Amino acid sequence: MVHRITIRDVAKEANVSIATVSKALNGVDVVRPATKERVLLAAKRLHYVPNLMGKQLKTNQTKMIGFYTTSIKGPYFSVLVEAIAGEAEKQGYALNVFLSTDKRVVLNSILGGAVDGIIGFEDFLDARDLQAMKRESIKAVFIDRNIESELFGSVVFDSFIKGKAATDYLLSLGHDKIAFISGITGVYDSDERLRGYRQSLEEARIPIPSNYILRGYFEENRSKEAVKLFLNREKDLPTAFVAGNDLSAIGTVKALQSFGYHVPADFSVMGFDGIDLLDYFTPRLTTIRNPIDLQGRTAVKHLIALIEGKQQGTAFVLEGKLSISHSTGKPKN
Fold this sequence. Notes:
Number of helices: 12
Distance between the termini: 83 Å
Mean pLDDT: 90
Strand order of the largest sheet: 2-1-3-4-5-11
Structural class: alpha/beta
Radius of gyration: 26 Å
Largest sheet: 6 strands, parallel
Helix content: 40-55%
Low-confidence stretches: none
Pfam families: LacI (PF00356), Peripla_BP_3 (PF13377)
InterPro entries: HTH_LacI, LacI/GalR-like_sensor, Lambda_DNA-bd_dom_sf, Peripla_BP_I
Order of helices and strands: HHHHEHEHEHEEHEHEHEHEEHEE
GO biological process, one term: regulation of DNA-templated transcription
Protein name: LacI family DNA-binding transcriptional regulator
GO molecular function, one term: DNA binding
């Protein structure tokens, strides 16, 4: 039978009481520095690992936060998850990533006490699910919806404002036939960027043909195929495209190039997010640079403040910046 190293073994190794070991390992100041050092060395020699389940029962905390989503594909998520994990560790918490399209799996983990709080990125938790979380006093910060309550906060980008700003910029260059590559209906950034695009053209009194709104699902290949189908099918083409994110913009450029067009000589294209991949893509994309790293770190800080009772839920809106580069220009005469 395998013997698990216990706090009793550490006490014996360090020649101190179990209570002294507990205080030393938990940073209680009453333990003399020399004694604490002896306990820590003994624990290290024995490869002692605290019983986290037992500790959880005593403190009613896991010191773990969760992050749920249905996919972590793409450069946006690599930056976001790294920022969340790094800030969580800095704050003394571990990160548990729930990657599932089945919301029951996510809800069971949240409501079952697997984490102290959750950062959410998907819209599959509906009003009833959120109500269940409130009943259990689950703390949550969302980055896919703008929400603010006692237990829930959010950290989102100013996507409506920047969706409008992106379209306004193309209008200022002289474009009046502008198409939009949308993301996923129901996702905050996708909906808000589309709403900003519509608002800009409405204010300019420019009608939007229904076929000018394409679905790219925030993915390069699906955006590329959607634009290729559009180019094959339509005769009245726009002179510019606003893509819901940078991957969709890259897919749009590749679709245009596959038809022999040049960007920006024939069409202007712009995206959102300012992902690192743009440094290696030609032409350099005009985009809205969003502080993805800051979004992740802010979400963690706010969630831990909620967990520790230091704040109530707050809606944080982070500002993106227009970055003008080589993929946009004046329309051809």
